[in-house]
Protein: Lipase
Organism: Oryza sativa subsp. japonica
Amino acid sequence: MPGGGNRCGLQPISLLQALATIILAVAAAAAAAWLAPIAGTSSSTSRVAAANGTCQSRVAPFGYACEEHTVTTEDGYILSLQRIPSGRGETAAGGGGGGKVPVLLQHGLMMDGVTWLMNSPNESLGYILADNGYDVWIANSRGTVYSRHHTSLVSSDSAYWNWSWDELSSKDLSAVVQYVYSQAGQQKMHYVGHSLGTLIALAALSDQQQQIGMLRSAGLLSPIAFLDKMSSPLARAAADVFLAEALYWLGLSEFDPTGEYVHSLVTDICKQPGIDCYNLMSAFTGDNCCLDNSSVQVFLAHEPQATATKNMIHLAQMIRGGTIAKYDYGNAGDNREHYGQATPPAYDVTAIPGDFPLFLSYGGRDSLSDVQDVSRLLRALGQSHSRDGDKLTVQYLADYAHADFVMARNAGERVYAPLMAFFKLQEK
């Protein structure tokens, strides 16, 4: 197969299902990219922004101190990391992050760290946390324009893209948490993830217990774990429309949502009966209640970002199987080579210690983080966490959909204020 895809265990049925996860590829607002009149416009603009850096393009103009950092994973990916050590107007003596509680923010799939900076300083979580006295760290996963480098590979190599969210959890998140912990003077940090950023945290917490020693708590916004109940009509249509053979022989190792091929796929889906592509955001993410045009325009200037095709296949396996497990290489032999067993090991979220504080916020209109799937996750967590006390806090917003949690104009009071109150309880 061209593009080295066999190393990923690509199977025709897997790629057919992978197209059903285009909705995840644009997790949250990324779907809006296809509203752009010219495919690829956001990609080129994003690369200009990347050359300038997030600090210069999105943080410093609002009067915040900002630092650009890099951290290298054990498998050689060089990740970009931004630090906002102080709030607006804070003096150098009072800033610098010294002694402050750190918070690590992790974006979702096909997004980057700008996720947390898309609205005004009064409405975006990154700025709000800095203004409330936190030492803010913003992660950018491998494959985004901010984290495109590697110690020995270039992004045009198919080997560069030989990863899924397993590696985002075990390699990227691990390296970033250890780096922030060290830079912050071995201060335990709070973690906040959105969408796929919640899945990699749940996997790490259940599979890598050493991470817990560096974390105070985890805030999970639009949690993604079990995926078989996703209700997006566009996702279900994608699985029916696209030919597995075409995808199988395409051999793409990099999945670029701004590319001409993906754009044409979405165009074809939009021709199917019952699919309303005049409102792509709602078709993908659910009916978001509270977005405004300015945040969507910031999104279009930066997103969506590329990911690995292998990552898309992994998510498709979850939709098909209804489980949270490591990447399935498609046959018992390859799985044994990687895992020592014929089937991929499952991530057991019930193994997350019951005294580790979790904050989950989900929406009634979210078609990616579906209410039924979140309920299943909560039942699993309930086996170790009791809702009595402050170790498992659950917030349900009936009118919120997937993008609202990072882009809504009223998320500050509805989501971020309760989240920070939860943080304060864990800091006592």
